[in-house]
Amino acid sequence: EKMHNTFGEKIIAVGVYGGPFGKSATGKYYPLTTDLGDYYNTKMDISEQPYANINRKEKSSNYIAWQGIVALLLEEEAKITLSCENTYDSASGTAAIKVSGDALSTIDDAHLQVWIIEDNVVSLQRLPDGSVNKEFVHNHVLRTSVSDKDGDPISIAEGKSFEKTYSATIDSSYKPEDLYVVAFIFSANGV
């Protein structure tokens, strides 16, 4: 929340829960942990928490440094414009998601990642003083990937527009009014 208070709409934070930190001593998942979170934890070789992978460029377990890293990355010139149009059909429990944009420069080997995140998820949280709050309200919780978990290849050529449409069935345990779509383009050079 502190980062959002500082940078506002310029950033999108996503809480990814997984790996050994997302399981009890008996191996049972904690409520926020997902198979997708486990996959990303393994892929990024995360061995400590808290941990941030900022724009897929800067990786840090020093949460005090995150704000400075974000400030520097926000100075970079945008390579695309991107927008999402989302509709939800409560009768069928499905969401239609249209992601479109314009390329301001070419991005080689680009991938489109589309996630669904949820706010107001009540679950336990270990606090900095070592105590545990069992009624902590979590925001920006990664729930699922609508695109392939490694993103979908997409052509991003300077001066060209692009568009991709997805359909997703929303898990009945999620609260549709607290769900958001996060979409971004990434390559080996980051977001």
How many E strands?
Answer: 11
> What kind of sheet is the major sheet?
4 strands, antiparallel
From the spread of the alpha carbons, the general shape counts as globular
Distance between the termini: 21 Å
H/E topology pattern:
HHEEHEEEEEEEEE
Look at the helices and sheets and give the structural class: mainly beta
Low-pLDDT segments: none
Mean pLDDT: 91
Radius of gyration: 17 Å
Q: Which percent range describes the beta-strand content?
A: 35-45%
What is the overall number of helices? 3
Helix content: 10-25%
Short note summarizing the structure:
This protein has 191 residues and is mainly beta. The chain has three helices and eleven strands.
Q: Could you characterize what this model shows?
A:
With 191 residues, the protein is mainly beta. The protein has three helices and eleven strands, in the order H-H-E-E-H-E-E-E-E-E-E-E-E-E. The strands form four sheets. Strands 5, 8, 9 and 11 form a four-stranded antiparallel sheet that branches. Strand 1 and strand 2 form a beta hairpin. The radius of gyration is 17 Å and the shape is globular. The two termini are 21 Å apart.
